[in-house]
Amino acid sequence: MKTCLVVDDSSVIRKVARRILEDMDFTIDEAEDGQEAFEKCRNEMPDAILLDWNMPIMSGLEFLKNLRGYVGGESPKVVFCTTENDIGHIAMALRAGANEYIMKPFDREILENKFGELGLD
Q1: What CA–CA distances, in Å, run from 88 to 29, 37, 74, 84, 115?
Q2: What is the pTM of this model?
Q3: Which of 9, 30, 53, 106 could cross-link to 60 by cystine, CB 3.0-4.6 Å?
Q4: Does domain 2-117 match CATH 3.40.50.2300?
């Protein structure tokens, strides 16, 4: 079964994403900041990561840079999911190794489309 780590400091966003992704046959794990997410990835690398940008302790961008530099960290498909919508943030995320970028609020159709484009459907 495919695995996805949902990383967001909002429990509501994590809950909504979990419901949608479980319906897409993903096994879900959650983290509320980048540091917790990195520790979980060191224990077991997921197939996909849905990643928030603005979080306490370690931001999504910091997490992504650490992940991509870690052995095996190049393999998960990373979808940034954030309210940051300017082209500079999007470019920074893609340069750091994000595979896709979606805006909050998102819905089932948006997640299904993005994950499908990445071959994760």
Answers
A1: 29, 24, 23, 9, 23
A2: 0.96
A3: 53
A4: yes
Distance CA 42, CA 1 (A): 19
Owner of token pair 């993005």:
114
Domain range annotation of the chain: 2-117
Sheet holding 26-31, edge to edge: 26-31, 2-7, 48-51, 77-82, 100-103
Q: What would the pLDDT profile of 42-91 be if each residue is shown by its tens digit? A: 999 999 999 999 999 999 999 999 999 999 999 999 999 988 778 898 89
Encode pLDDT of 25-51 as tens digits.
999 999 999 999 999 999 999 999 999
Where helices occur in 4-86 by DSSP H, the ranges are 11-23, 34-43, 60-68
